[in-house]
């Protein structure tokens, strides 16, 4: 019976970790959220994250970082384009005068 209870608890922790991943949380954010909202100790969350599939989470962390960097790059490009558009006056487009 205790075995059923602990396996049920582990499944619940895994389910909550999956929800964190869907919200693009990193390992630290996931541990903090589960501790705050589900009263799950960070060591348990960390152990589950590492035990289940360490390579997956390492890849996930790399991919997440790349996405964040791409978003920052896109924001910089959009800001540069906005700055360029606001610095262009109608006189800049008229060469025939």
TrEMBL record:
Keywords tagged on the record: Ligase
UniProt GO MF annotations: ligase activity
Keyword set includes Secreted: no
Pfam families in the cross-refs: A_thal_3526
Domain of life: Eukaryota
InterPro entries: CHP01589_pln
NCBIfam families: A_thal_3526
Protein name from the UniProt record: Histidine-tRNA ligase
Organism: Rhynchospora pubera
